[in-house]
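Justification of computing resources. Each target in the renewal requires a structure prediction run like the one illustrated here; the chain below, 273 residues long, is used simply to show the kind of job we budget for.
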Amino acid sequence: MNILISNDDGVFAPGILAAKQAVEDLANVTVVAPDKNNSSVGRRLTLFKHLKIESCKLDDGSPAHSVSGSPADSVVVGTKYVMDEKPDLVICGINQGVNISCDITSSGTVCAALEAVSLGIPAIAVSLFMDPKTSFKQDENGEWYVDYDFTLTKKVLHDLVLKIIDDGFPEGVDLFNLNVPSNYDCEDVKITHLSHKMLEKDVIDNTHEEKAEIFNYPLEDGQSSDGLIMIVSDLFKEYEESSDGHALLFEKRPSLTPLNVNMTIQHLNDWKL
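Resulting structure tokens:
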């Protein structure tokens, strides 16, 4: 089996190495990813413009390729240029964050998986939701750092790929969207549906006192905030019990959502224009 791994956090992000380590005993793995962070770019493609591709090495010394484009670009380049033959599976991640609900269409991680499906390749998008209370820590000098614990995510991803190797994808499923909490109460995977939404969005300016610290960073010394605005967001708070958001954020267990890219509604027999 040949697997292409990409992401949206950039080729040197720790999650892409974790994804490789999770499945390298199951398949031949090729890593092609953006040269820098491309979060929330959706399915942006760079058409008829030059892209730079470079060979590089991950932290374990294994080979990879960086692309000066989007996650979707990286999947196309990996499939059509880097690999000698079309991969059997594309894995996008492990994303450092959360990708749930109908908001996944803005996710570079999930949309890279959608790009794979458009190329005729089944895909998995996988994300680690880092609990703000446990994932962000301070060292002995008081400096903040992120504690990336991919242990459970790697195990679930490995088991999922093994299941796919043995049984294939279920009929009608093009891709799986997997989200795993860092601070989990249960390791059992729950099959879920997409929540209505993930983010509550707002627009602020320099008059917004509650989020002044966010708005003013990283303004340069002497730079005025007059005329500037910023889109901000918070996680949605209410989720249906069978949804991905409920499993991940309330039950604190891995959520696996089977998806089909054909968004057509078939039953409009009594509705005419």
